[in-house]
Amino acid sequence: MKNLRLEAALIMVGLILLGFFIQQGLNTFAAKDRTVTVKGLAEMEVQADKVIWPLVYKNLGDNLNTLYDDIKQNNQTIVQFLKEQGIDEKEISVNAPEIIDMKAERYSGDRNSSYRYNVTSVITVNSNKTDLVRKLISEQGELLKRGVAITSGDYRYNVVYEYTSLNKIKPQMIEEATRNAREAAEKFAKDSESRLGKIKKASQGQFSISDRDPNTPYIKNVRVVTTIDYLLEE
């Protein structure tokens, strides 16, 4: 009888200890899964380091030979002007002219035009000298004195500014975004009466580059958002 009681007591103690260890294991397992997910934002304004500037002009006429001579002369005038102002020849591209025969154009609403041919010519500047090109854009009226009228308003030929040096600022921006994310995580841990642990998982996120505003497309806003999972400790 005593043996049965002893065995029962031992079984009871064993069950209690088993329950205790299971509970401790569950608590430890739950603690391992306690995380907080935060996002860190970093933004920076930079100036564009590349510009594509299309100079567009038009010629009207009836004689293709005469138009060819006029276009050739206009191209030379524009290229000469650009070189004088500091643009390298390798930064200048002369495109083939686009010719519309007004008499043959099926959908033209200007069949009664006094000129048969409408020619659009484009010379493109592709340069890293963004400040210089911006200055020339504001002074392109100088070409009027040389007999060339630069046109605008064609959506196909807009000035484009780009920022190509993202790799130079990536480390700095990622560091800032990570720091901002950690600050948010530390605030959360403090409010939840926990301590912030190690990083469980991190995602750098994608960089985006956009115009700061419509009026200054040569100033870019670079943005990155990092997502980080931190462990929380008691």
TrEMBL record:
InterPro entries: 26kDa_periplasmic_antigen, SIMPL/DUF541, UCP029033. Transmembrane segments: none annotated. One of its GO terms (biological process) is DNA damage response. It comes from the Bacteria. This is SIMPL domain-containing protein. It comes from Phocaeicola barnesiae. The lineage of its organism: Bacteria, Pseudomonadati, Bacteroidota, Bacteroidia, Bacteroidales.
